[in-house]
Amino acid sequence: MEISAFELCTLLGGTLEGDPDVKVSRPAKIEEGSQGDICFLSNEKYLKFAYTTQASVLIIDEHLELDAGVKPTLIRVKNAYTSFSQVLDAWQKSKMRSVMNGVEQHAYIHPSAMIGQNVHIAPFCFVGEGATVGDNTVLMAGAYIGNEVRVGQDCMLHPGVHILYGCEIGNRCIIHAGAVIGSEGFGFAPQPDGTFIKVPQTGNVVIEDEVEVGANTTIDRATMGSTFIRRGVKLDNLIQIAHNVEVGENTVIAAQTGISGSTRIGRNCMIGGQVGIVGHIEIADGTRINAQSGVSKGIRKSGTAVTGSPAFDYSEAMRAQVVFRKLPELMERIAELEKKLKESA
Fold first, then answer.
1. Are residues 59 and 112 in the same domain?
2. Rounded Cα–Cα distance for residues 198 and 103 (Å)
3. Which end of the chain has the smaller Cβ count within 10 Å, N or C?
4. Are residues 159 and 269 located together in one domain of the fold?
């Protein structure tokens, strides 16, 4: 993809400073930028590289002030990080689309499956009976689309993704390599003799629009009904979401988090890595859960921040940690006081 600074500035809605005709064809880090590269600057820690980079175009926060002239043409925007992410997205899609078009050899598509326009299906993909794949969607090598699965438009399914029977994927979703959507929920009924009887998991998983699912993340189908991943959710790698969970809109969850069955997580929550959440609880909108926390009961107040295991209010936890670090000193003081009391008795 080659584009002029003027065209790029127009797309980003920015303000141009420098040569409008200079062209760029690839993104780069500001400290490594060379001719033909486009870089960004939003963190003042990297401001020194603005004066040394050889990049052709630099996207920069509109409030950042430069003390000297720079080589790149500048595009000033409200948020350089966000604007540069748009550039990366366009560049990645153009690179992929240049080599991805149509159904390749060794892919299997059931005759009853419905395939949209401008879809790419790579070798060794499987598209099952009654499945639907929307316009402009890409299935990379080894993707499995089970029977009666619906995949929306403009989706990207990376290698080895498995979407199992009856699950639904919305529009503009990205699912990274090795993710499994619709695996069976963990349901077993204990018996008097100590054995377990398997409880069939008859529901599905519904992923709404603009969701991103990380590599090797698993989302279990519901026992009955649906496991819901609502619009705009972003899931990191290696997350386990159990049956009948609901994750609210625009919630982000970091790697290695596990969420037990039938838990409902609200909108706009932020959940750190390696968090464990028990089943059958509700977590309010805007909740923030610190990494490695264990959530053992519901959180009802919106905007609550918690940490620890079992997790409790973040500010109280910080004060408790201060006291904990001082325990040896406090023990010594108590011992001295007890000694003085005995001596004065």
1. no
2. 39
3. C
4. yes
114 with 231, same domain?
Answer: yes
| Digitized pLDDT (tens) for each residue of the chain, 345 residues in all | 789 999 999 999 999 999 999 999 999 999 999 999 999 999 989 999 999 999 999 999 999 989 899 999 999 999 999 999 999 988 877 766 555 678 899 999 999 999 999 999 999 999 999 999 999 999 999 999 999 999 999 999 999 999 999 999 999 999 999 999 999 999 999 999 999 999 999 999 999 999 999 999 999 999 999 999 999 999 999 999 999 999 999 999 999 999 999 999 999 999 999 999 999 999 999 999 999 999 999 999 999 999 988 787 878 878 887 887 888 888 988 998 988 888 887
Main-chain phi, psi angles of 132, to 5 degrees: -130, 130
CA dist 255 → 160, 208, 276, 298, 338 (Å): 19, 20, 11, 21, 49
**Catalytic machinery residues:** 243
Q: Say what the pTM is.
A: 0.83
Of 73, 99, 125, which residue is a domain's last? 99
Number of domains in the chain: 2
